[in-house]
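Running this now, will post back.
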Amino acid sequence: MKKLLILMLTLFAVSHIYAQGLILKNGEEFSLESTNIESGMLSKYEAYTFHFKVLGYEKDEYKLQCTLIKAKLKEIQPPNFTISFNTDSIRKTKLNSTEPLLTFAIFQKPFIVYVDRNCRVLRLEGYNEVVQQSLTNWQTSASIQQEVKQNGQYFPLLTIRRMFLELPKERLGYRSTWTNKEYKTNYEVTSIRGALLDITATDSAKTGQGKYVLNTANGLLESVSTVNKQYWDKKLQQNDYSQGITYGSYIKQAVDTAWINMAATLSWFSDAFLIKTGTTDSAKLYGYFSRHDTVFNNDTYYTVSKLNLIQQRGENGYKKYDTLLSKTPGKLLAGEPSHLFNKMHSALGSDVDTAYDVVRYFYKENMFGEWLQETYAQMFIARKPAGDDEDWKKAMRSRGLTEKEISGMIEQEKHTMVNIYLLLDKMHNDKSIVLQQKVNALYLWVSAEKEKNDPKLLVKTAAKFNRLDDDYMKAGNGGRYGLLLYALLNNAGKKNMAGQVMDKTIGDLERYAADTLNANRYGDKNLLAHAYYLKYQAEWDTDSVKALQYLAKAALNSPVKANEKAYVSFYDRLLLNSKESYLEDYMNKLFEHGDNETALKVFADYVSSNFDRLNDMQKLYESRFPGKSFKEFLTDHVINTWQDAPGFVLKGIDGQDHSLADYKGKWVVADFWGTWCSPCRAEMPKVNAYNTEINEGKHKGIVLVSIACGDNAPNVKKFLADNKYAMAVIMGDAPVIKGYNIQGYPSKVLISPDGKMLLTSFGSDWVGIVEKFNELYAAN
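Update: finished.
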């Protein structure tokens, strides 16, 4: 009995001897490697390895030398923005965010971390100096330095804190529990394995749980695995975190300092080549290139950055940009769609193999579809050659081009007109199904154009078109080419096959226009409107009732709201000689037939799609309905149908809260913009001038609300100060951008005195529109 009691006492004592806290020896080294994966609305992978060396212990604090020795990140932000870097393959980095900039600033550069005995990370020392030294070397702008330093308040401090488990003062044993009040997390020791404690964790909201293995011999975490699940807008966002430890020193790898310095200096974060006026110092810029060309001539980042900087010099840099671009191999432009887009022009003017090589790196990019449907397709339209166009030559001379340069352009055009057909054949015969899907509808139309005088061949080509499935029709904008084929078949007298092509085209477009997930939904809907208009024209002489039904469908599918006016539809109209809207055609037919009630409903849609023509709309209404009020019609049938403007409370650059409710009873012009947006900056003098007039009382009942998006307050303040713009600006956030359906910048949203909103079309006369609305529907 005595022996048993002694044994039980011994076991009892052992289960409580684990003195939590750091117990590290001077000179001891270890590395902590963490991996964090976010999935859901946001997608992010990040992995960091920090190496620590114990430098000493004083006043209950461990002094640890800390070095970031490895980093990898890939983050995808909606709608399609990717941040990516990997220190193991550093030359693949794109410096499109300050996140890699901060990582590069501290990579392989030691600083000090202080940690107390309870594993609480207290502070960093020398970190700010390391960051500042790098930013100074790279000559980053003041606003970027401030942004990087703001980010530095969170990284790497929060990452390092997560690597240590803060422990309670009480001794730990089996089933010991404690709570971290700061993180609202409960911990429990679930088992003991020698010096190792297995610990589970759950947060108070029960959205996260984790498992920790604590080494009580030194207070370090041997491993960590946690999962956190939350719902954003009813969509799951999951965070998976893991961590491990390696003891001992690490083999220091050489840092590609020259490349990092080059990348940061050539990034848009740097002011290295700017003079006080904000313009580029050409001597500095080209001097830098001459010193670094031999070192980085085959480097993708260097090549692309060089092209960017030369292109940004505007008119003075275009010739040098075009020359450099024409000499740049396609492989160095992979992943750079704008440069590939521009290179296609010079490539087509030289030889088809060069153009085809560019296509190999270009065709998977979204911008390839834009080039194909908006630029390339136009080249197949018959036009007067530049060599025979005296007006064109005169215009070129007025721009200062020499006769030699004009002759060179004419010669290039000749090559281009041959090469466009050769390239189309190569793309059509390419082994890539993705490329074939994008090209084949265009290929069939071009083939039909060549065969338009041979009805048999034309019918065979039309039969091939009728066999195109949805993948080919959607990827290749097949609706456009179906309508072009229809016209060719009609002109050739092949009415039956023309009808088959039209039926297929309308059937497909009906489905695509109804598909809310179809990215080109409104472009397809605009094509559908023209298809029904063609049916209306074909039926009018034989069956006017059926024809009017087709015209009604043409009107029904015509764009009404600004977001329904697809950009690609402009190019569709160019090739098809179609109209943007058939509302006016239908409305006029209804008036002719005396159906004023239906005509008024169509007229309301017509007004909503043509706000630039409000004066014309008013005259038309008053001529059709003498004595009736256009103002009442506008209020009841147009403005009241707008969506409610979402309320908001946003911080201004003045630090004050600004609410939509502050402007109730007035017409509001909400200007969504950013200092990073070139069209926004170009329009800002007009916006500022109008805001000044409002402040001077020239536009009573109207207020302009400037909302900066994807920006930071210091950046906005500097931009306003540098350009002497005097306006209040508030900082937009994701919910406001989503609520107002902002798809591009700049965007103007008009908000009525009663809180109804209208998104205006880009490039529209928003000043004229809001002035007319204020005249007809006056603010209180």
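Residues 34 and 547 are 68 Å apart (CA to CA). More later if anyone needs it.
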